[in-house]
User: Fold this.
Amino acid sequence: MNSRTHEEWEPLLVVAEKVRASLLPVEPSPAFVQDLHRNLLAMASGKRLRTPLSARHGLLIGAAALGSALSVVGIIAYVVRSRASAEAKTSVHG
Amino acid sequence: MSCDETEEALVERAKEDPAAFGLLYQRYVKQIYNYVYYRTGNHHDAEDLTARTFYYALSNIGRYQSQGVPFSAWLYRIAHNQVANWHRDRSRRKMIALDELLSISQRKITPESLIEAKEERNDLLKAIRRLPPDRQQLLILKFTAGLSNTEIGQVMGRSEGAIKSLYHRTLLVLREELINRDEVGETG
Assistant:
């Protein structure tokens, strides 16, 4: 730091010290801190509980979709088999 | 929790584990409260906005990604936005609530020098509250939260050099304010 910079900064450091002394840390009320802590934990637990529920919903939807898909495949297989069987009968009688 | 768990790991855990979020809350609640207190000037709104800050953080922590910026910087940004909204909503309501800082102490019988020091502090606090929001933010983060210029830059989204420059300009303004105050005091 050269002397000119020092001369420039010295009065500002005095101001900085006054600002520091003015902006003293304050303490929030313990009751407020505890209440907010409790409320946040309750809210966070609620969020966590919703996640397995959502996962369960997802599983149910997935199972339902799989069931539907299997039903469609079953119907198609039945139709195809019925047609094949009918065609076989027709060719035998014909 | 292991003692050497990094903050990043704790934040990741807090996305699923309420207890981990509770630890982050305990770590930062006083800092956020102080920041909001000096931006609003009264305890009632400081409590309200501190609560809003942490509710918002809890609701959005799943989207938080470190990317080199500490979790505290993210919290300070949320608090800053809450304060900005508060000032916008109440722009018509002029609160000089910092007066309450002295109202109690001035009732006591104290030596004149002590009263003078308190008056100077009160005037300085008022001068700080007249500064643009970014300069108030800088001073509170530096002196109340004890953050370095680099950390303040992370909170405010500016370079360390920009913070140093803003700090220098802010001190110059406050120095002028104090000089003017002293001159008025001498002539008055």
